[in-house]
Every structure is written in C-alpha cells, then in structure tokens.
Structure to design on (805 residues):
C-alpha cells in the first residue's frame, strides 16, 4: 500500500502513522478494532458487484447531508421567502447553483442506488438468517429516502413542486378512517399552504434525518458485524470461494465506486442543470405536465389505471391500500421466505421480484410516454 | 318652509319618522301622515314603507319637509287640517314640477351644507341644459325627471350599493328607458346602447370586474347635464380619463380633418358604447386596419399608418424574443433581475408608442420605439450572457468529470498494486 512513495516521504508517513497509532494505543485498547480490520474478508464471486451499491447509496447520503447543511445556511422555509431564498442561493451565493444542483441530483441518484441495492439483496436472498433485521432496517431506510424526496421536492416552492405536492397529498385522503387526519397532518390544514411548507421543512431537516441516522447506524453496524452474505447457490455448493481483504482491497474498490458515482453525478448535473422554475401561485390553475418525482410515478400511474369503482369500492382507495400492503410485505420478506430460512431458493419470491421490477419499469416508462394529466 | 317654528316641528316630526320603522306607536303620536297612510294601506302605504331606508329620513327629514302641511294637526283624524294649503301642503307634485320640487332644498347651498358640506347644488341648472331638461320644459313628460333615476320614497345615497345611481347600477337605471324600444320610439335614437355597453371594454370592467374606475353612462354623458358643461367635443369627454391620447389627438392633423368632415373624433376609430379594447391590428395597412377606411393605399396617410405599425411590431417582436430568453434564463436559476427591469421599461415604451399613435407622427413614434428597442436589446444581451454563463458552468462540470476519471484511473492502478500485496485467496465455506 505504501510502495509508491519516495523513501524519504515513506519514512515520514510511517513515523506519523506509527506515532498517531502509538499515541492512540497508549490511551485506548484498539486491539479488537485492529483485529477486526485485519481479519475481515469479503467474498468474491460473480455477483460481488452488487456489494458496492449499499456503499454508493451511503456516499450519496453523505453528499446530501453535506450539501443540505450548506443550503440550510440560506434557505428560508416560508411561502413568502422560500422561492426567493433558493433563487438567491442559485444566483448570488458563490457556487450556490452547484450545491443546489448536486443536492437535487444526488437525492435522485441516492434513491436509484437504494432501489438497485434493495433488488440486488432481494434476488441474492441476502436477507436470510441472520440478516433479517438488516433487511428490515434497509427497507425502512428506503421508505425514509422516499420521504426525504417527497418533502424536499416542495421546499423550493415552485409551480411544479406545489401542484405535485397537492396531488400527492390528496391521495392519502382516500385511506379509510384516518385519511382526513393524514391529509391535514401532512398539509397543516385543508390545503397546501405556507403551513405545509414549514411542516415539510421540519420533516426534511429534523424528523427524517433523526430517524434515518439511528436506522443507518444500526444497518451499518449489522453489515460490519455479520459481514457480507454469500449467494445461496455458492453457499449450498459448499465449494471453496475466493475472498479479498476488506482493508485495504475492498475499501479501495468501494472508494473507486464512490468516485465513479461522483463522476456520474457531475455528468448528470452538467447535462441537465436543475432548474429553479417559476414561483408557486396557489391561485393559479395547475399547469400541464404536473408529475411527481420519477420514483413515485409507477404508483401514480397504477392509481390512474384502476377503475373508479372496483366491486363497489373506491378504486383509488383500494390502490393505496394495496401499495400499503405491498410495503408491509416488503418489510417482512425475510420472515415470509420460509425456504430461504432453511437455505433453499424460493422460486415464487424470485418470480414476484422480477414481476415487480418489470412492472415498476413499465409503469414508469408508460407514465412518461403516454400524455396525461394528474 | 324654513321658518324657525316650521323647522322645529320638522325636526320633531323627522325624529319620529326616523324611528317609525322600529317604533310605529311612537311615530303615530307625532306624525299623522304615517298613521293615516298606513291605515289606508295599499298604494297609499307605499311611501311610508319606502321611507324606512330613505336617505332623507335618515337625515331626520319627514314627509312634511317635502310635501308641506301639518302632521300634528291630523292626529285627531282631521285629514284636511293636516293637508292645509295654508300650512304649505303641496301634496304630490306634477311631473313637470318635480325638478323644481327637489331643487327647493338641493339648490340651496346653505341648507344642503347642514347635511353635507361638499354637497353639489347645481343639479337643477345642469338638468336644464340636458336633453331631458329641455324636453321637459317643452312639456314632454316622458323624459326622465329626478325621481325616475333616484326613486321617490326610498331614495338611497349614491354610495349605497343598493342605490339605483350606484356606479354598477347606472347602466341598468338608464336602460330602463333607453333600452325600451317601445318607450323610446318617439325619439329616433338607438336603443341598443346598454347591450353594446355590456360587451365593451368599459362595460366588462365595470359590470364583470366591478372596477368602479371604469366609466358608466354618466361618466361620459354627465349626471344631470347632457354633457359635462363646457365640453365642446367628444375628445374632451374621452380625455377626462384618456388624457394623453386626447392631448395628442388635439395636436394632430386628424383634429382639423375630422372637424371639417364632421366626424366624431375618438368615436370615428374606436366607436362609442360598444368600444372594444384597441388592438395593434387596428393600425397600419392590414385587413383589420381602420386607417384604410379613409386613407387610400399609397397615400401619405396610408404610408404613415403602415410605418407606425411596423415600428410597433418591431418593438413587440424584440420584446418577445428578449422576454422568452430572459424567462428561460430565470427558470434555469440565473441572475436576470436587471434584464427584467429593462424589459419592464421596454414594455412601458411599447405602451407609450401605442399612445403616440394619436399624434400621427412617425418621428415621435420612432423616438419612443427606439428607446424601447435599446432596452429590449440590452435585456436580450443580458439574457444571452446569463445562458452563456449557464453553459460555462455545464462545461466546468463536464471538465471536472475528466479529473474525476483520472482520479478513478489512479485508484484503479492502486487497487491492482494493493491486490498484489494483499492477494485474493480462496476460503472454505464458513471461513
């Protein structure tokens, strides 16, 4: 790891490294940590590429935290000042446009990476014993990411965000018994107003980060504690498989993944600069082309396809309840996959996973190809 | 009527009249007009009912203030005593006498100032100058007198939204006669004014948007006079609001030409009751032009009209291009506030140039449109600069990708090197 340095620099590095390590060792018992780093191995097989998507999601999350804090320095969460403050960030603050563009695009890439991570873990059945709670915490982290996306989308208080939020929050009203309460809870009143903006800001910068931090720490701890899961087939074969040291081999590969992710982020931000839009006017009619963010589109498209009445019941309500049920089943996948628990592959779950993935992709494409209004 | 004793009795009776709506028993004690008319009912009770919300009653006046007589004398049932001509009883005035009847108070500045220091007292003299007043003096009793517009018993203040002479209600009030073809058949004037007005820019502003700055009938035709006193031309009337257009018209060659041809000035091009929002297509040599109604193709007037239109179209076009570009840059989050100010000023120049059309001077229009063109061009340049800055940022990000890829390549080489030092090995299951 240190062969590329000149002999003189090498010595200096060794001295400072050893000096710092010695200084720390004198004060703390680091033997367990050192042993863990030294001994930790990562399985190497043809599906190892999927191991990196968790790290890439984490990388985008860290970018979100850093750029989010910078945006917080200037953002003002009121209906009167929100749009102007984002405009100020983009036009007056030095490199504010870059921070805002990265925050917006990184959010999308984080959710995309999280989806890839979720499906790869699902298909590799990495959720099986003893990693059930890692899966559960991961699914909740994905839900929280969607919450981040939904709440953050409104904050610039532009026309598209305003009406997309209006349509999005309207949907919860169809939930039986508590729909009305949920609508008012989300909006802070009957309609989308400055109260909604303040509320969403609170969710976005306080409530969701707090819960996410706790879950993320658990998720990362569990991954490190239990190590990487080996694909079921490889495990069943019982044949030897290759491994690589976590430190430095895997960590450097992880870092390479992060750098490539950063490159992808820069490329997308360069190709498609994130627009400021037009300030929201609650009294104006909804403009054409209002759409939620792409990761919600498949659900909206589904709700549009469901007939108004199904067996005498409200179609939209059934759709919302169905998605709620699917979400709950997704959380419980490790406990529902009985075969996975005994080290066997469940074909039904595999097919369901493929069907879900294809459904999401098709519905998303349909939503963007077929002209429609929400 | 204004003797001290008389006034004192009026005040007492007036107080009773003001209160009779709520306390009829008390009113009956002091005002035999009210008690008798209520008792007789039907038509004769109508005035008493109407007076409940009448502005005169609210100011403390009573029946006898207008009709004379002695309301206290009739309390014992002697109706004739109450209607004693010796006590000034005039009863219901003849229709021809109504203007004079109302003017006994309304033309008396000293009396009117008791109620409103700024009250006008020239209504009768103005009325006499009007067509209504002149025909009445000739004995035509079909024409409007005070009560036709203001009501009889139940007259409300003109500021009261329920009043027949409240701005929003005036077209309907005038239309009661002027839109009635049968009633107006003797006068040889159109009866579609109200219908036209409702479709006009003025009518829509007043009746649909409730904009009281928009003119109702009386704002152009006068309240009590036929036209505002001393207004010799239509341009004066329109100029009350459209001041700049009016002044430019008076200084233009059209003024003398129109007067010579007997054309009704503003109305010649814009129409009267059905006046629509003017458009640029009214100007120039196009198919919708009104200039070509008089000016033949190729004539100096035709050429001037075409040139003026071209100037305006050029400015509009330049503003549109600049506005689109600046809006695009603004949506993208670029700083374009100065350009927006310039576009705002360019819009002002466009409005000024449209006003300047009334001067019929190509030079004066060019002067205004040139200023607007400069502003629009400046905004366009700013918009282009903003979009160029956006492209610069994009290129900067694209360049950063090269550095990122170089870093990735370096790291890849490092990984290869590390893999040699810390080789990948085979592990047994469960290891």
């Amino acid at each position: 790891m240190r062969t590329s340095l000149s002999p003189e620099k090498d010595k200096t590095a060794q001295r400072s490294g050893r000096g710092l390590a010695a200084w720390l060792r004198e004060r703390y018992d680091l033997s367990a940590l050192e042993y863990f780093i030294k001994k930790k191995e990562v399985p190497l097989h043809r599906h190892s590429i999927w191991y990196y998507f968790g790290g890439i999601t984490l990388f985008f999350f860290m970018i979100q935290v850093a750029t989010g804090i910078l945006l917080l320095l200037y953002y003002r969460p009121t209906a009167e000042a929100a749009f102007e403050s984002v405009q100020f960030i983009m036009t007056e603050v030095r490199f504010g446009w870059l921070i805002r563009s990265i925050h917006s695009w990184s959010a999308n890439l984080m959710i995309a990476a999280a989806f890839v991570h979720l499906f790869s873990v699902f298909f590799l059945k990495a959720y099986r014993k003893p990693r059930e709670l890692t899966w559960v915490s991961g699914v909740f982290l994905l839900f929280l990411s969607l919450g981040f996306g939904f709440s953050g989308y409104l904050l610039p208080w532009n026309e598209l965000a305003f009406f997309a939020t209006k349509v999005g929050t309207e949907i919860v009203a169809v939930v039986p018994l508590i729909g009305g309460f949920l609508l008012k809870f989300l909006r802070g009143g009957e309609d989308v107003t400055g109260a909604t903006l303040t509320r969403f800001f609170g969710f976005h910068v306080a409530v969701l980060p707090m819960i996410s931090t706790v879950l993320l720490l658990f998720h990362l701890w569990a991954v490190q504690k239990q190590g990487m899961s080996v694909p079921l087939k490889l495990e069943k074969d019982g044949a030897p498989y290759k491994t690589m040291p976590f430190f430095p081999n895997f960590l450097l590969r992880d870092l390479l993944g992060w750098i490539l992710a950063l490159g992808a982020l820069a490329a997308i931000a360069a190709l498609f600069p994130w627009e400021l839009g037009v300030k929201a006017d609650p009294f104006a009619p909804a403009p054409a082309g209002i759409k939620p963010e792409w990761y919600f589109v498949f659900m909206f498209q589904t709700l549009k396809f469901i007939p108004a009445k199904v067996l005498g019941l409200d179609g939209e309500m059934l759709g919302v309840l169905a998605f709620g049920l699917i979400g709950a089943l997704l959380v419980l996948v490790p406990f529902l996959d009985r075969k996975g628990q005994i080290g066997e592959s469940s074909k039904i779950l595999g097919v369901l996973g493929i069907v879900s993935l294809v459904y999401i992709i098709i519905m998303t494409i349909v939503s963007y190809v077929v002209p429609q209004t929400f | 009527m204004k003797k001290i004793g008389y006034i004192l009795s009026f005040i007492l009776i007036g107080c009773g009249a003001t209160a009779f709506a709520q306390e009829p028993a008390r009113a009956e004690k002091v005002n035999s007009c009210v008690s008798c008319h209520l008792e007789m009912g039907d038509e004769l009770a109508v005035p008493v009912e109407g007076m409940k919300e009448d502005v005169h009653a609210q100011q403390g006046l009573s029946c006898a203030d207008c009709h004379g007589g002695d309301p206290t004398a009739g309390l014992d049932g002697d109706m004739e005593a109450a209607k004693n001509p010796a006590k000034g009883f005039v009863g219901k005035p003849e229709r021809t006498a109504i203007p004079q009847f109302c003017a006994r108070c309304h033309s008396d500045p000293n009396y009117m100032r008791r109620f409103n220091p700024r009250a006008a007292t020239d209504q009768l003299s103005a009325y006499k100058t009007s067509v209504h007043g002149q025909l009445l003096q000739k004995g035509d009793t079909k024409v409007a007198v005070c009560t036709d517009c203001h009501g009889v018993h139940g007259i409300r203040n003109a500021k009261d939204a329920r009043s027949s002479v409240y701005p929003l209600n005036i077209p309907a009030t005038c239309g009661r006669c002027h839109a009635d073809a049968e009633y107006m058949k003797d006068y040889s004037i159109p009866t579609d004014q109200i219908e036209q007005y409702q479709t006009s820019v003025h009518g829509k502003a007043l009746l649909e948007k409730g904009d009281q700055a928009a003119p109702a009938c009386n704002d152009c035709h006068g309240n009590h006079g036929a036209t505002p006193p001393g207004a010799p031309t239509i341009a004066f009337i329109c100029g009350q609001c459209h001041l700049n257009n009016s002044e430019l018209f008076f200084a233009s060659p059209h003024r003398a030409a129109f007067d010579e041809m007997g054309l009704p000035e503003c109305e010649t091009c814009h129409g009267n009751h059905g006046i629509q929002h003017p458009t640029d297509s009214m100007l120039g040599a196009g198919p919708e032009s009104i200039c070509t109604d008089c000016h033949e193709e190729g004539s100096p007037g035709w050429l001037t009209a075409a040139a003026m239109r071209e100037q305006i179209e050029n400015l509009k076009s330049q503003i549109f291009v600049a506005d689109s570009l600046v809006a695009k840059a603004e949506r993208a989050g670029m700083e374009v506030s100065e350009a927006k100010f310039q576009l705002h000023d360019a819009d002002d120049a466009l409005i000024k140039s449209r006003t300047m059309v009334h001067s019929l001077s190509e030079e004066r229009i060019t002067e205004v449109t040139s200023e607007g063109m400069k502003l629009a061009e400046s905004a366009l340049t700013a918009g282009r600069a903003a979009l160029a800055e956006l492209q610069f940022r994009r290129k900067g990000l694209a360049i950063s990708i090269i550095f990122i890829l170089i870093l990735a390549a370096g790291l890849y080489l490092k990984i290869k090197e590390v893999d040699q030092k810390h080789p990948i090995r085979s592990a047994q299951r469960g290891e």
